[in-house]
Write a structure and sequence with these properties.
The protein is of the alpha/beta class and 134 residues long. The protein has five helices and five strands. Helix 3 links the parallel strand 3 and strand 4. It is globular and about 30 Å long.
């Protein structure tokens, strides 16, 4: 098993593919979703919730946007760290997201070193038990 499992939620296919490749090369198992609705469906299955160590979530998406998806993840899976990825930085929104429990905020275009560092730091928060350790 890799370093952990990461859920990447972004409506842009090239971003999903790029981030997935970065994380896979970095040793992580990756699950992708094309919007907040699909990300939530991936996390809540009737039979077995998807176990992930970190969630990377875009903000501006169709159907269920990132803010709504993050609110759901924080309420239902509070121990799973969430990192925002966005191409439209919003300084006022950042403060609100951090108050909701977001652990990091990355601006597109994403650099591999920054993504791997943010995911590694989030996954190793004190007191967190990695999915891969369960």
């Amino acid at each position: 098993m890799g370093l952990g499992r990461v859920l990447v939620i972004d409506d842009e296919e090239h971003v999903r593919k790029t981030v997935s490749a970065m994380l896979t090369k970095g040793g992580y198992d990756v699950v992708v979703a094309e919007d907040g609705e699909m990300g939530i469906k991936a996390m809540k299955s009737d039979d077995n919730a998807l176990m992930v160590d970190v969630i990377l979530c875009d903000i501006h998406m169709p159907n269920i946007n990132g803010t709504e998806a993050i609110a759901y993840f924080r309420s239902q899976f509070p121990s799973v760290p969430v990192i925002v990825i966005t191409g439209q930085p919003d300084l006022q929104g950042v403060s609100s997201l951090f108050k909701q429990g977001v652990v990091d905020y990355l601006v597109k275009p994403l650099e591999s070193a920054k993504v791997l560092s943010a995911v590694g730091n989030a996954a190793k928060e004190p007191g967190r038990k990695m999915f891969s350790d369960r």
